[in-house]
Amino acid sequence: MNKFDVNRYEGVFHYFDENRDGKISPSELQACVMRIGGGELLLEESEAVIECLDSDGDGMLELDDFVGLMEAEGEEEKMRDTRQAFGMYEMDGSGFITARSLKRMLSRLGMSRPMDECSIMISRFDLNDDGMLSFDEFCIMMHN
């Protein structure tokens, strides 16, 4: 996480921490969720959210707990985006990206490549040498 993210999360944390005690209570979480347009959150629901994230068991979220929540949300979003991208390349429903499906998608994106080049691209991240990319192999490729 970079300094910009930390500063942004701190700003949001302080916005939620209405009484400025350095902790977000269930009622503060409930009020802020409603204020930012997240709909009604019952007090019991906000207590349950905090209980899941509360690292010291005091029933409140401290900054570190809150940052952990924000990072987890960001990771979930990245995973959804990665799954969506995988689905675009894996067109035939096989659960794998083949050189042929890679070639087809690259052509649709205006980046046509010959089949042998697509095979080479696949082989660079094909860890089990089956000639295809699984979702896990695709994730490795996307993070390199």
Q: What is the CATH C-level name of the largest domain?
A: Mainly Alpha
Q: Which fold name corresponds to the CATH topology of the largest domain?
A: Recoverin, domain 1
Residue stretches low in confidence (pLDDT < 50, at least 5 long) are none
Number of strands: 0
**Which structural category do the helix and sheet elements fall into?**
mainly alpha
Helix count, per DSSP? Answer: 7
Distance between the termini: 17 Å
Beta fraction of the residues?
A: under 5%
Write down the secondary-structure element order: HHHHHHH
Report the sheet with the most strands, covering strand number, pairing sense and barrel closure: none
Radius of gyration: 22 Å
CATH architecture of the largest domain: Orthogonal Bundle
InterPro entries: EF-hand-dom_pair (IPR011992), EF_Hand_1_Ca_BS (IPR018247), EF_hand_dom (IPR002048), EF_hand_pair_protein_CML-like (IPR039647)
GO molecular function: calcium ion binding
Protein name: Calcium-binding protein CML37-like
Keywords: Calcium, Metal-binding, Repeat
